[in-house]
User: What shape does this take?
Amino acid sequence: MTGRPAIVLTDPQRAEVETLAAVLTAAQIADFLGIGRTTFFNLIDRDPDLCERYKRGKARAVGAVAQSLVTKARAGNVTAMIFYLKTQGGWRETVEIDSRTTLVDAQGKGEAFSRLTAYLDQIAERMAMPGNIIDHAPHEEADHA
Assistant: This one.
């Protein structure tokens, strides 16, 4: 067969794909490796190990950020709570006006916060279970912003 020789990544490059996947897109990784984007996508498609390394790198980054988000939400960071509930809990910002009920009473706020805290505690416990991919990510101190 004539044409260009097949691109083969070295073992260090393959390991670097997993590390870089946490912070770069596939196209940016291709640029970093000095290969075409289509070539990189083709490598991922035909090499199950490389594909798994890329996915594992992405999953570790998402897991670490999610763990930090849940930690901040459990600590009372309202912005983190809202973001989490919108992205994971199905909450959305719509206002329905019903003249028959009040929006929230003072007692309801405390109860809602307690239920949310209990729910986030359950999530944190599941995330800390052995075998969870987050257990394999480097542990860093949570940023208490």
Observations:
- Confidence is low (pLDDT under 50) at residues 135-145.
- The chain has six helices and no strands.
- Helices lie at 11-21, 26-33, 37-46, 48-74, 78-88, 106-127.
